[in-house]
Design brief:
Order of helices and strands: EEEEHEHEHHE
Helix content: 10-25%
Number of helices: 4
Strand order of the largest sheet: 3-2-1-4-5-7-6
Largest sheet: 7 strands, mixed
CATH architecture: 3-Layer(aba) Sandwich
Number of domains: 1
CATH class: Alpha Beta
Radius of gyration: 16 Å
Strand content: 25-35%
Structural class: alpha/beta
Mean pLDDT: 87
CATH topology: Rossmann fold
Number of strands: 7
Shape: globular
Length: 158
């Protein structure tokens, strides 16, 4: 099974589209922290600009519960320093940098949740209209609004 979490009005074909409210795209109306799905039933989870609206630890725990061992997650969120779409948005309760999911790496040795991330690649969507193409990595570390969004590609091991 492939899940599209926080689908809103965007229906992805081949996915079970989940949102907290009924929309034209919703297949399942449910909270992401309490999904009506069996344990270990999901192969792939996709989320586009939704994770920042969810309580992070509760969401991760629930998605791990429904994920199969080796499940892939693709999570796209606004980047922490994007003031236009992220920091000023009162509906964003979580903020993301490249380190957000590293919390679950082995170096932290956490008791919960009972999983680890074995693949964690990160892609930046740079604001080249504002900053051009030179020295973006250096600018990202010094200034606001250099990165619009960040994409996490994760593999879950339970």
């Amino acid at each position: 099974m492939k899940l599209h979490i926080g689908c809103g009005d965007t229906k992805l074909e081949g996915f079970t589209n989940v949102d907290i409210r009924k929309t034209i795209a919703t297949d399942i109306v449910a909270s992401v922290t309490n999904l009506p799905l069996e344990d270990n039933s999901v192969d792939y989870i996709y989320s586009h600009h939704s994770f920042e609206h969810f309580p992070f630890l509760d969401t991760v725990n629930e998605l791990v519960r429904v994920s199969k061992n080796g499940a892939k997650w693709e999570v796209i969120t606004p980047y922490l320093t994007n003031t236009q779409y992220n920091l000023i948005n009162p509906y964003h309760i979580e903020h993301f940098t490249e380190d957000k999911f590293r919390f679950f790496d082995d170096i932290y040795k956490r008791e919960q949740p009972k999983f680890r991330i074995i693949t964690n690649s990160v892609e930046f969507d740079y604001n080249t209209d504002l900053w051009g193409f030179d020295n973006l990595e250096e600018k990202r570390l010094k200034y606001l609004n250099v990165v619009k969004q960040i994409t996490f590609k994760l593999t879950i091991e339970k």
